[in-house]
Structures are given as C-alpha cells and as structure tokens.
Write the structure tokens for this entry.
Amino acid sequence: MRSIDLNCDVGESFGAWSMGDDFAVLAHVSSINIACGFHAGDPQTMRRTVAQAVKLGVAIGAHPGLPDKVGFGRRELAISPADLYADTLYQIGALAAFVHAAGAQLRHVKAHGALYHMLEKQPALCDAFLAASKDFDPKIKVFGLSGGNLVRCAEKLGMACAHEVFADRQYESDRSLTPRHIEGAVHRSSDRQCQQLTQILQFNQVRTRQGQDIDIKADTVCLHGDSPNAAISAKALREAIEAAGFEIAASHNELGKP
C-alpha cells in the first residue's frame, strides 16, 4: 500500500495562552512539528507534547521559527545567516533535550511561518538553516515546500528531505502558498481541505488560485494546528487519505532520497 505522512504544527501554547487542541489532533496524524520557544511554545508545553507523541507513537520534529511571539512568527524579520544558524541550532537542541529525556528520537526539522517562506527566497538563509540542521544530526530529515528551494538544496547536500504539501492553504501558479492577507489563502472547511488533498494524492496535481492544475510532489501533508477545528480536520483528512488508498505513516530518513 502507498503511504503518506500527515503532519501537524503543534505545541504552540505559551504560559496561560492556549493554542489548538493538540492532543486531539495527535490521535490522527503520523508526525508533528513542535514549536521550540521562539515563535510560540514554552518548556512545559514542549515536555507535555513530546510525552503525548511518544505515548501515541507519533514521529517528532522540531519547528523552529523567528524570535517573534507577538507576531506568532508570521512576520518577516531581518536576520543574518549567522544569527539564523545559531537560533536554529538552539531551538532544535532545546526540543531534542525533551525528546531524549522521553527516550525517543528527533526525526525531522521544519521551519515555521515567515521563516519557512524566507528560506525559499533568500539562499544565504537557506544555507544557514540547512547547516544548523545538518550539524545537529547529518541524518535528520528536513521538511520543505514541495519542489522548492529548501528541498532542492537539501538534496544537493545529500540530506534526507520531504516535499511538503498543504491541505489547508491555497496555492499560486509558481507552487508557492498564497499570502495569508489574500482572501481565500486559508481553507477553513474540512471538506475543501479533503478535496484539495484528494486531488494531490490521486493526480499529483493541485488547483491554484488562478484556476490552473499544476504538478506537485507529496511526501508529507501539513495541517496547521492553530486552525479552528483542527482536530475535526485531522480526522477528516485521515479518512480522505485512507479512502484514496494510502496508508498514513511517517517516512524513514533515507539520505538523499526525498
């Protein structure tokens, strides 16, 4: 049976501020990306989220972002490659400590929010992010925009990587995600999310905001944990994946094989 990884961004609560229904989401996904304290999250949230993931057998990844809790890491900030390298390694290491203490292994790294898109547009930042990930663990897998700059660079370095697609985001004709300030950029309906994902799985294509069907490669599919009714969407997406004839499973870290 063909398999696909279903991942979700989680662990984004902070102090008294609660974000998302993470534990309900974890019951339906195969991988999670846990915030590491810069854009969201805190030590106790990281610890609890790791423990629940280990209990359910869900693969754990680090979700480093820009140091911007006020903007939830979704604002572009000026940052040097040297600072990004240090910030990325710091965040991966922080989460890895909790993962190690829980007797598990950190499987992958995925940038958050504005940083995710900056890595596609700024080669020096992309190099710094990959260097930090590789220096932490040469076998770590990197998640990046399907067909994008990050995964192409990771492949050239012989790093394990996964081409990521989105069930809950609209696409542009160049395979980039529609900016969030544009109406319709986020698919709120689980029916719409399942419709888009089914097209990707069955035809390796996605319909863009401009009305084109473009080719796209999918190793892992993302659902944002901060979205309203994320747990309902996760359950619906799981059912849609299985109906399309796929098994939901985290992929192994095969070097140089996306």
User: Anything to note?
Assistant: The domain at 2-248 is CATH 3.20.20.370 (TIM Barrel). The radius of gyration is 17 Å.
